[in-house]
Amino acid sequence: MDSFVIRTYGRTELAQIYCPNLCPEAAFRKLKHWIDLCPDLRDRLSALGGSSRSRSYTPAQVRLIVAALGEP
């Protein structure tokens, strides 16, 4: 498998990279759950401009997610 690249990802796109065997909706719910389990991660993502209505993660937000959850 290729090395994971930090770039802008759609939220479902990133979720499916973490959970490739789930349907897109379930993968997104799973990623959201994992993010909520990490202390302060949701707040740090929001501080970088994210909201529950955002459809994508910026490279800076992806870095935070990967730092908290590990590389997919």
From TrEMBL:
Listed Pfam families: DUF4248 (PF14053)
Protein name: DUF4248 domain-containing protein
